[in-house]
Design a protein that fits this description.
Layout: H1 3-7, H2 14-26, H3 33-38, E1 41-43, H4 72-81, E2 85-90, E3 93-97, E4 104-108, E5 113-116, H5 122-136, E6 141-145, H6 163-167, E7 172-175, H7 178-188, H8 190-200, E8 233-235, E9 241-244, E10 247-253, E11 263-267, E12 272-274, H9 297-311, E13 317-319, E14 326-327, H10 329-354, H11 360-366, H12 371-374, H13 386-398, H14 413-423, H15 427-439, H16 443-456, H17 461-477, H18 481-495, H19 510-513, H20 517-524, H21 530-533, E15 538-544, E16 550-556, E17 559-564, E18 570-573, H22 575-583, H23 598-606
Parallel strand pairs: 5-6, 6-7, 7-8, 12-13, 15-18
Antiparallel strand pairs: 1-2, 2-3, 3-4, 4-5, 9-10, 10-11, 11-12, 13-14, 15-16, 16-17
Length: 620
């Protein structure tokens, strides 16, 4: 952020300070979370600093008094998530927390370490492994477990495994359907989701009291090297038992909970239960604002209940992929029961009100937790919120349409913006009403009506500035880390728009490069420009020189198909070269494509879009 743009940021208004005072009066009594989060601490590295990828140093302001620009409840969660280092969960099980948004867990096997969830990127994962080895012994990694299909639980795998480890078949265990779910979320929809993630995780914001403070789920996401290495062992059913490096593990598959492919598991030898990301120290997302498939609250609750029944009686400690553990059978049972009921309550009450005829926004406005759930810190909206989770349940059952025919085919934002501005009497009238609402502390209304003016005239500086001011105050008031980051990132981009580019500013192709060939070709289908393809027909065989696989690839009816086998003249190249062609890093000639299908491949590549990561969000 430039100095000029930083100066545009404002302090908390009187309305925001009053909102914070109201929140502070309703917070639950202390539940000992800081003692739990510090328990078993062994050591760390200064500021959890991993050059080029991660550091807790910018969050030193959390050691001071809470500023007026941060919700008091989020402030507490941010301080908890700032605790970092190597912790003993129980003898033989260790976690490194605070080196990324997620935790990396190490289980002592007969010969080496079983790694659970190797973080988002390689550098923090490697630093965590080194911290463990420096303290507990330089033993090899003998297996890796991905609890589920989100990138912060597999992306750093190359920080704990080498290419030689992968080639010799070190077990990489994941729930059935992991690869398909990971590709769908991080590759097929990867560009739009990555852009929205810059808002959700505050990656473009300064880390200070008026910027990014915490993600609720953890401090934030690391920015190192990301890879997607396919698992070679699948967990297919509940009750499945694997022995990895002499350690017995009992698995519970939990599909369509926090991720489409996810699993909990128990270590009888250690009396330790891993709840993956199905139970964390806050209300999670039934819909994630970065964009993903809506999650099944009913299934989520069911699988927590099943885990409680299967494992709680044999567990001395429960740990997860984020936050801090719980120790003791009774605390574990109490925690699981309230997490279970949290998701079931949101599910049941949303559908109860929907059956009375209320739509998603109406339900979200009135839904409240019962006193027994509201009394817990671990049910608060640090990540998911009651508001957008109620809308998620509504969407899962009833879709985006609320049944009102006026909402069936509404104008898109630019066209609607022009009409709203005209109907209100022009830009000056819109601004006057926006300023009146702002002075009254009605920031939601300010942002909504002035947003129409921004979409009608994105160059209108006064409109952009006023909407930014309103979003900023909503960010300061937010208890949810992602809501805060969305609001503050929107304000930042309204105040300082990113310059347009004549060429696409593409995201990293790191995950594309490590995809299996079949998944890589599947990922190309969403890049095919249907209007450009028109009535063209293309047929060839793509022969991958690095894997020896051959695929028939065909375009017809503006749709890209592929299947194993022959499909016409062959174009021979590696998977990496194909990625370079798709991203424009190389031409067909520069990639050294061999075979008489090179020309057909060039035709295909010419019809593939290159995505611009930095598309506009707060303006057309």
């Amino acid at each position: 952020m430039s100095e000029a743009n930083a100066d545009a940021r404002k302090d908390a208004t009187a309305a925001t300070r009053a909102a914070h005072e109201a929140v502070a009066r309703t917070l639950p009594p202390d539940d000992g979370a800081f003692e739990l989060a510090r328990r078993g601490f062994i050591g760390s590295i200064p500021d959890a600093d991993v050059p080029g990828a991660w550091s807790q140093r910018p969050f030193a302001f959390l050691d001071a008094e809470r500023p007026d620009t941060i919700n008091p409840s989020l402030w507490r969660q941010a301080r908890l998530n700032a605790l970092h280092g190597l912790f003993e969960v129980t003898p033989g099980v260790y976690q490194v927390r605070g080196f990324d948004i997620s935790n990396i867990t190490f289980v002592e096997g007969r010969e080496g370490w079983i790694v659970i969830d190797p973080l988002t990127s390689a550098q923090p994962a490697a630093a965590a492994l080194q911290l463990l080895r420096d303290t507990k012994g330089d033993r090899p990694v003998t297996a890796v477990i991905y609890t589920h299909s989100h990138v912060d639980h597999y992306g750093g795998v190359m920080g704990v495994l080498s290419p030689d480890d992968i080639a010799r078949g070190v077990p990489i265990v994941a729930p059935e359907g992991f690869l398909q779910a990971a590709v769908a979320e991080n590759v097929l929809a990867g560009n739009v989701m990555s852009r929205r993630a810059t808002y959700m995780y505050g990656g473009l914001l300064p880390k200070d009291p008026r910027g990014h403070v915490d993600s609720g789920l953890g401090k934030g996401t690391s920015t190192g090297k990301v890879a997607l290495v396919a698992p070679n062992v699948s967990v297919t059913h509940t009750g499945q038992v694997l022995t990895l490096d002499g350690v017995e593990i009992v698995f519970q598959v939990t599909p369509d909970t926090e991720a489409p492919a996810e699993m909990n598991f128990h270590f009888p030898q250690f009396g330790a239960l891993c709840m993956a990301e199905n139970c964390t120290c806050h209300l999670h997302n039934l819909y994630t604002p970065r964009g993903a498939q809506v999650r099944d609250a009913k299934a989520w609750s069911f699988y927590i209940d099943e885990a409680l029944d299967m494992f709680a009686g044999a567990s001395d400690v429960m740990f997860a992929s984020h936050h801090w553990p719980r120790w003791g059978e009774d605390p574990i049972r109490a925690f699981l029961a309230k997490q279970r009921d949290l998701y079931k309550y949101i599910h049941d009450q949303t559908l109860r009100m929907a059956n009375h005829g209320m739509n998603g926004p109406e339900i979200a406005e009135v839904l409240r937790l019962p006193p027994t759930l509201e009394a817990e810190w671990h049910t608060r909206s640090y990540y998911g919120t009651l508001s957008h989770n109620a809308k998620a349940v509504y969407q899962k059952y009833l879709g985006w349409f609320d049944g009102n025919p006026a909402n069936l085919n509404k104008h898109p934002p630019e066209a609607a913006g022009r009409r709203y501005v005209d109907a209100m009497g022009g830009p000056d009238r819109v601004l006057a009403e926006g300023r009146r609402a702002f002075e009254a502390g009605d920031y939601r209304w300010t942002a909504e009506i002035v947003g129409h003016l921004v979409f009608a005239d994105p160059a209108h500086e006064a409109a952009r500035a006023l909407q930014a001011d309103a979003l900023e105050q909503m960010g300061y008031q937010a208890e949810s880390g992602p809501w805060r980051d969305f609001y503050l990132t929107g304000a930042q981009e309204l105040r300082k728009p990113r310059p347009k580019s004549d060429t696409p500013r593409q995201a990293s192709a790191g995950q594309l490069r490590t995809l299996p060939a079949d998944n890589l070709l599947d990922a190309l289908s969403v890049r095919l420009n249907g209007l450009a393809a028109g009535a063209e027909t293309i047929g060839l065989t793509v022969a991958f020189t690095d894997t020896g696989e051959r695929f028939a690839v065909r375009v017809e009816n503006a749709v890209l198909h592929h299947r194993a086998g022959e499909g016409g003249p062959a174009a021979e190249l590696s998977r990496g070269d194909l990625v370079d062609l798709v991203t424009g890093a190389k031409t067909v000639a520069e990639a050294g494509v061999a075979g008489d299908g090179a020309a057909e491949l060039a035709r295909l590549v010419s019809l593939l879009d290159r995505f611009d990561l930095w598309f506009e969000i707060t303006a057309p």
